[in-house]
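Possible regression after last week's pipeline update?

I re-ran a chain I had predicted before the update to compare outputs. Posting the input and the new output here so someone can diff against the archived version. Not blocking, just want to make sure nothing changed silently.
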Amino acid sequence: MARETDPCCLIAGFRVPLKSMDVHLNNPDLQAKLDSWVTETGRGPGELVEDAMAGYFDELARTRQMLDSRYDDLKSGRVKPIDGEEFFESLRRREDELLKKHSPQ
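New output (post-update):
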């Protein structure tokens, strides 16, 4: 079991012990950003990458859940799709009306 002082990563609510990891990225700009974060935070590159990946996968899961929910709403008929061109045309009309209303006469 990991002690509090052992480097670890919190993934899905569980403390996961980290092993030393060499991280080399093919993108030099990304590698420079990682190196900068390592220097600023004093954390190891492996720990930073694991935290970033955990956050990425959490966000990906939330996005997928939201998209699935919206798809289900469309499929069930709870929400009606709108035509994109119609929407932008109505948006343009509303904008024109607002500009006319607030422009000096």
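Follow-up from reviewer: compared with the archived run. The radius of gyration is 24 Å. Marking as no regression found.
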